[in-house]
Amino acid sequence: MAGNNNADPRHLETLDRDLGRLSNLEQATSFAARPIVGGGIALVFIALAGLAAALFFGQSSNTLLVTVAAAFGAYMALNIGANDVANNMGPAVGAKALSMGGAILIAAIFESAGALLAGGDVVKTIAKGIIDPQSLGTTEVFIWAMMAALLASALWVNLATWVGAPVSTTHSVVGGVMGAGIAAAGFGAVSWGTMSTIAASWVISPVLGGLIAAGFLWFIKVKIVYQDDKIAAARKWVPVLVGIMAGAFASYLAIKGLKKIIKIDLQTALMIGVAAGLIIWAATIPLIKKQSEGLENRNKSLKVLFGIPLVVSAALLSFAHGANDVANAVGPLAAIVQASGSGDFLAAVSIPFWVMIIGAFGISFGLFLFGPKLIKMVGDQITKLNPMRAYCVALSAAITVIIASWLGLPVSSTHIAVGGVFGVGFFREWYTERRIKQARMAMPTRKQYSREERRRRKLVRRSHFLTIAAAWVITVPATATISGLLFLLLNSFSS
């Protein structure tokens, strides 16, 4: 009988508890090890980028400088992948049109393709004309300034990712170059006209993105969601919205994503967009009709019709982002490579292919290793998104960039996309409050919510709104300060 003691229920309970503790310990160990593994892989990539730079640049007196600069550029590219790419994929993940793994895979492919196939091959002015290179005097001072700008912007984006704030990597680089320029040559080295235009874009781009996203959501609600026959309305208007998306992205890619292949002016890009929009609209009509067959007349059915267009729009945004924003990582690095090789730091900067590879692979690795945190923030924690709302955000991003290009404003894809998410959320708050008031007027006996309860039911999380807005405002001065200090430190080593 003694041999059956193991069957005692109390013994089994103890065994279950022990196994549960082991399981929890295993999960905790896995969770704690994940950032360590990610950091280790990132360090290996940075080291490989430096090694590749040493091999491609060849033996010279400046090889060590270029190697260190390549490591800084790889670090910046990792941070762009961790922070910036969330703006393209966050809405699709938040709307559950894509899984986290699917979003990371699509973004990595299209970001890399955009960077390598259509990335800008010439930076006409250093960091978009923020400083006058001539004011820096010597090649050595110029190289230290670009090194400081690159490292400062990477450190700032890393910090922003850690606290969960999607910031503009473009503005981070701008602030870094400005701070290094001021430390090297004084305030007169900065093009303050360009800086004032960029400062204006801090307000204009998110507000414009939010208004356009809210406008499309209003259109969808009025023309489709609140119609008696939702499916019939969707068959009519979803192809129109898909055609608008196709036209907007065709123009967007023509303006922002194909600079390396062919130069296209705004008017030609708009004509391309109109033609593409009409073709896709006509092709989508039978597809939507077939997809909508058998769907129930309810809002849940409408989400199905927006799923595929939303995934396609996220992929196209990633391609254009890779083509346009990879220069944030590799522009200063390319300038250092050119100045180190030829000694000429005043000419337009050509970006070597190996430098573009560092930028493209760095963005993909950063997204894979550290991107999920910001993807969840943008897609799920600001306001609740569904495929229709997320589609409005993606469409707004493309249209806002086209409008900004027409106005000549340097805008941030981060500000536009996050502004679109806020615009959708605040519009839903306004629209919901409006419907509650209408219902209250129609039924005075309806239950009344207190002001405190209505505040608790807000559809946009105010804490995230304030955190992100504060991070946007201080990005340029923060990176400028860090960059200026780094320049003084680096320059003191060489003197």
Features:
495 residues, two-stranded antiparallel ribbon, 16 helices, Phosphate transporter, phosphate transport, Phos_transporter, mainly alpha
Can you tell me the residue ranges where pLDDT is under 50 for at least 5 consecutive residues?
Answer: 28-33
- Put simply, the count of helices is 16
- Write down the Rg: 26 Å
SSE-based structural type: mainly alpha
Instruction: Compute the number of structural domains.
Output: 1
Mean pLDDT: 81
Distance between the termini: 86 Å
List how many beta strands DSSP finds.
Answer: 2
Report on the biggest sheet: 2 strands, antiparallel
Fraction of residues in helix: over 70%
Along the chain, the helix and strand elements come as: HHHHEHHHHHHEHHHHHH
Question: What fraction of residues sit in β-strands?
Answer: under 5%
Query: Strand order across the biggest sheet?
Result: 1-2
What overall form do the CA principal axes indicate?
A: elongated
